[in-house]
Amino acid sequence: xxxxxxxxxxxxxxxxxxxxxxxxxxxxxxxxxxxxxxxxxxxxxxxxxxxxxxxxxxxxxxxxxxxxxxxxxxxxxxxxxxxxxxxxxxxxxxxxxxxxxxxxxxxxxxxxxxxxxxxxxxxxxxxxxxxxxxxxxxxxxxxxxxxxxxxxxxxxxxxxxxxxxxxxxxxxxxxxxxxxxxxxxxxxxxxxxxxxxxxxxxxxxxxxxxxxxxxxxxxxxxxxxxxxxxxxxxxxxxxxxxxxxxxxxxxxxxxxxxxxxxxxxxxxxxxxxxxxxxxxxxxxxxxxxxxxxxxxxxxxxxxxxxxxxxxxxxxxxxxxxxxxxxxxxxxxxxxxxxxxxxxxxxxxxxxxxxxxxxxxxxxxxxxxxxxxxxxxxxxxxxxxxxx
Length: 387
What we know:
The protein is of the alpha/beta class. The protein has 15 helices and ten strands. It has an eight-stranded parallel β-barrel. Strands 1-2 form a two-stranded antiparallel sheet.
């Protein structure tokens, strides 16, 4: 088939084939791994896609999660990957959490599910002080804990919006952590994922932010499971995790450097809370299985080809990465269409999707090559190529 390139040309591409077969791990994993999953739209019932609640295909959305659980992965639910604040509102996210938790309890693998609690159900203009911000967080936290979900305290756009300083972050987070019934996961999302989070934690530099967060974690270590860091900076993550109190995990959210971070440096290692794991589940699961068996050669052989794919999916502007996750779900037959809440599939160009197709094939992640080829050709035809 002919695929467009970033050079503005069409080039022949022949599939390598040889896809990985999704399966459960044969040994217990030594890393906790949460895949952050997307939401599948219901195009037949979608109305005014840029406004209001999206129409969700709940059956397809849950089937995708079950496929992740079947492969031994945990789930980070209702997070950035699920288009929180970018097409998916809190009412939809709450229903998603409720449905997912019921499905998780019925699943034979009894998977871990952690759910994002934020403030996105209240307009920013109404979140004008720490009291209102804490109340908004509390409403979502209560809804998640009512379903027995573990809490991820998502970074809130409201705190930078009010110009919060370190003392305000400390007061808000201390109170939220104290009221949680189980240890929480903190969430440090860089502004490459959401420009509205620039300056999070109230510091004027990365060193100040580090000190603020480490002080918060040290004060509350007994109530903190871990912290997810998505700054796309391997050296920062390695230095930060070495300073964490014993028993507090570092969950990498670095979709560029996850392979060495999860492997570790012999003294410390990261666990995973990654959007890319939803797209590369067979490689991720089987690589973690190999790592648990101390087979590092197989670990790297499986993950190394996924890194170029992940870097393409998460290329700048990084916040549009969700489109690549949904695209691969469609190529692999987990959904019947490539339509996203708020029409988000239009956030990436056809050359990007062609490159994702190539790299997914080279990473052995096109589970049904014939189906993937047919669907890629359909997308090319819509864009004026191949038909």
